[in-house]
Write a structure and sequence with these properties.
single chain, Hypothetical Protein Ta1238, Chain: A, 69% helix
């Protein structure tokens, strides 16, 4: 199975889980990118963040993910047009990380994060962001993107991890091992 066939199979499964409008908004023109291109497309992380947002039951998580989606558009302009990523976005994500860190209990050992659809979608989004971060580091070393963007992607990955823990903690507090 080629990358394109795999991606189309994934899209076919997602299409049945969300509304037609959401699917068209978040998954239009997404693709699996070859690292050799020297180009990073962030539409895929944005799509997975949107998917996680749709499935989250936590209003705060949904709001944070919505804000992240808007900032990802700004990040995309640095990749595509060379417009520098604003330092304020990095400062804001640090504030959000600090706000969430005080609300959660971090595990003292390695745990499986994918406990249900909500945490699994966040985990996939985090994984895709980590891949973008690695590509951004390579581009940074070539002088093609700013350090601020690389740092922001790193914090975004960490924030997604914290949001997974927040979702898991909410399930635990409700006394349910939700599978949705």
């Amino acid at each position: 199975m080629t990358k394109e066939e795999l991606w189309q199979a994934v899209l076919a499964q997602i299409k049945f889980k969300i509304s037609k409008a959401n699917f068209a908004t978040w998954f239009r023109n997404t693709e699996i990118v070859n690292k050799k291109n020297g180009v990073v497309f962030i539409s895929v992380p944005n799509a997975f963040i949107g998917l996680a947002k749709v499935f989250s039951r936590n209003e705060e998580v949904r709001k944070i993910l919505e804000e992240i989606q808007l900032v990802i558009f700004e990040a995309g302009t640095e990749f595509a047009q060379g417009k520098k990523f604003p330092e304020e976005n990095y400062d804001k994500i640090l504030e959000t990380v600090n706000k969430i860190e005080v609300k959660i209990k971090k595990p003292g050992k390695f745990i499986v994060l994918e406990q249900n659809r909500r945490t699994a979608f966040l985990s996939v989004a985090r994984s895709v962001v980590r891949r973008c971060e690695r590509w951004a580091v390579s581009l940074y070393k070539e002088g093609k993107v700013s350090e601020t963007l690389v740092k922001w992607l790193n914090k975004l990955s960490y924030l997604l991890y914290l949001l997974i823990l927040l979702e898991m903690q909410e399930d635990e507090n409700e006394g349910c091992g939700s599978t949705d």
